[in-house]
Amino acid sequence: MLSRLRGGAARVLGPLADGLVRLGVSPDVVTVVGTAGVVVAALVLYPMGLLFWGTVVIALFALTDLVDGLMARRSGRTSTWGAFLDSTLDRFGDAAIFSGLVLWAIGNDDRTTAALALACLALGSIVPYARARAEGLGMTASVGIAERADRLAVVLTVTGLVGLGLPTVVLTVALGLLAVASLVTVVQRMGTVRAQATRAAGGLP
């Protein structure tokens, strides 16, 4: 399903990517601008209580994550640096979204929602770290029930709907489920790496 959505988005955004390439715009510039837009929207609009419009702006800037990739491939400018920059700045965007929700919840004296958003923020940083650390050790850890795209799709959708009038408790529950799913993903990745390390050491699988 996700691959089909990405394919559809690529067809829609293709002309934009081609136009930016013709203008000589670097994919890295698009990556930085997109991340800056997400960060500002999340840390300014969410704490102000503008959950719906904040989500709309974040979603629009998040599309640059597809545009920069299309630009890099179509211009032949794919590089290790570009991939590193994209992945690193993604963490800034993710952190800003959950931080914005923490600030919004605190402003509304909703400690439960604030705590769950903070848990999602912390666990969301551990999930990619576990994978990156495993790959740095020559192993793989690409398993888990809560991939980044899934987590963002859920939190942005629910936040936007709450901004349109859905009860706040729906967001609280969603954040709780995301926190649990993220924790399960971390445990899954740890288990996967442990199994690989055990096999490499000659132990039982």
* Count of distinct structural domains: 1
Structural class: mainly alpha
What is the CATH T-level topology? Four Helix Bundle (Hemerythrin (Met), subunit A)
CATH class group: Mainly Alpha
- Average pLDDT number: 88
* CATH level-two architecture: Up-down Bundle
Classified in CATH, the superfamily is CDP-alcohol phosphotransferase transmembrane (TM) domain
Number of helices: 8
Characterize the structure shown.
GO terms for molecular function: magnesium ion binding; phosphotransferase activity, for other substituted phosphate groups. Belongs to the CDP-alcohol phosphatidyltransferase class-I family. Its cofactor is Mg(2+). Pathway: Phospholipid metabolism; phosphatidylinositol phosphate biosynthesis; Lipid metabolism. The protein is an all-alpha fold. The chain has one domain (about 1-200): Four Helix Bundle (Hemerythrin (Met), subunit A) (Up-down Bundle). Helix content is about 80%, strand content about 0%. Mean pLDDT is about 90; it is low at about 1-5.
